[in-house]
């Protein structure tokens, strides 16, 4: 089933019973980046993927976002779909949202999957870079930004040999407006540090990271692993920042093994 609630577009499939899984995409993509996981996990689990406000089919609105607002949207969606507890699976920006949701609303989680993400906030250097990206997107448009961004998130091998992944990611970025992209950049720049919340997490956690990820590298994943009481971590070979798309076979195998443990 596909639907929209309060400006948030979502899809919901798979059998009822067991722990539902909610997939939260990275910046500046949309829910279609989870297609290989939605397909495979929906055989055994209820799976929900949605477009974060300002991305995909969730309109940009006023373009004024915060991670707090993104968490409000997520909780609103869970309430609307009558999902009491779910496994939150977030990649990069989706991980920032999942981490803050785990901190604010731990009772809504039955598990946490953190993919190519980190719990630390932006450094001053990163904030300045985001301001420069906002200015560039406003001045030159989304296409130039998309072509540069895609090179930073994929391995050279994916860029050369996987036109399907490159094409679908470019299509997702190009589907977003400068307003939505700028709003998400401001939200990420202003996000809080969620590291302290990791040690309080009482549900199982899985950390997955592309071994060549330069945006949120394996060292950031290892830092989260150290802080989490009940977590396992796997490096995804042949992948950079988009580990679920660059090596879906290994990613899906690790995800399926983790979901088996969730009551
Ligand atoms: C993402 O993939 O969601 C972003 O690149 C994360 C970030 O810019 O911090």
Largest sheet geometry: 8 strands, mixed
Overall outline: globular
Order of strands across the biggest sheet?
Answer: 1-2-4-3-5-6-7-8
Report the portion of residues in β strands. Answer: 15-25%
Helix coverage percent of residues? 40-55%
Low-confidence stretches: none
Essential attributes:
single chain; 263 residues; alpha/beta; 8-stranded mixed sheet; 12 helices; 16% strand; binds D-malate
How would you characterize the overall build of this protein?
- The chain has 263 residues and is an alpha/beta fold.
- It contains 12 helices and 8 strands.
- The protein has helices spanning 35-41, 67-80, 93-104, 124-140, 142-153, 156-161, 163-174, 178-189, 195-198, 218-227, 243-246, 248-260, and strands at 2-5, 8-13, 21-24, 47-50, 86-91, 109-115, 205-210, 231-236.
- Strands 1-2-4-3-5-6-7-8 form an 8-stranded mixed β-sheet, with helices on both faces.
- Helix 10 links the parallel strand 7 and strand 8 (231-236).
- It is globular and about 50 Å long.
- The protein starts with a strand and ends with a helix.
- 45% of the residues are buried.
- The mean pLDDT is 97.
- The chain binds D-malate.
- Residues 26-27, 92-93, 188, 215, 241 line the site of D-malate (MLT).
- D-malate binds next to loops.
Can you give me a brief rundown of this structure?
The protein has 263 residues and is of the alpha/beta class. The protein has helices at 35-41, 67-80, 93-104, 124-140, 142-153, 156-161, 163-174, 178-189, 195-198, 218-227, 243-246, 248-260; strands at 2-5, 8-13, 21-24, 47-50, 86-91, 109-115, 205-210, 231-236.
């Amino acid at each position: 089933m596909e639907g929209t609630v309060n400006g948030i577009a979502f899809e919901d499939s798979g059998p009822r019973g067991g722990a539902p899984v909610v997939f939260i995409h990275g910046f500046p993509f949309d829910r279609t980046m989870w297609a290989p996981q939605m397909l495979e996990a929906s055989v055994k689990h209820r799976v929900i993927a949605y477009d974060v406000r300002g991305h995909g089919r969730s309109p940009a609105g006023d373009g004024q976002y915060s991670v707090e607002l993104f968490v409000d949207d997520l909780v609103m969606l869970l309430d609307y779909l009558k999902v009491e507890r779910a496994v939150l699976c977030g990649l990069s920006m989706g991980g920032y949202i999942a981490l803050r949701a785990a901190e604010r609303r731990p009772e809504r989680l039955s598990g946490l999957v953190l993919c190519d993400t980190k719990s630390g906030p932006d450094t001053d250097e990163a904030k300045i870079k985001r301001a420069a990206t906002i200015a560039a997107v406003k001045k030159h448009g989304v296409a130039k930004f998309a072509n540069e961004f895609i090179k930073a998130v994929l391995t050279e091998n994916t860029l050369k040999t996987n036109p399907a992944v490159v094409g679908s990611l470019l299509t997702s970025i190009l589907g977003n407006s400068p307003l939505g992209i700028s709003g998400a950049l401001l939200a990420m720049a202003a996000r809080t540090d969620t590291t302290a919340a990791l040690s309080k997490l009482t549900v199982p956690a899985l950390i997955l990271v592309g071994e060549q990820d330069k945006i949120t590298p394996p060292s950031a994943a290892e830092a989260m692993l150290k802080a989490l009481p009940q977590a396992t971590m796997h490096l995804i070979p042949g992948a950079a920042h988009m580990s679920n798309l660059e090596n879906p076979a290994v990613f899906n195998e690790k995800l399926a093994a983790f979901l088996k443990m969730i009551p």
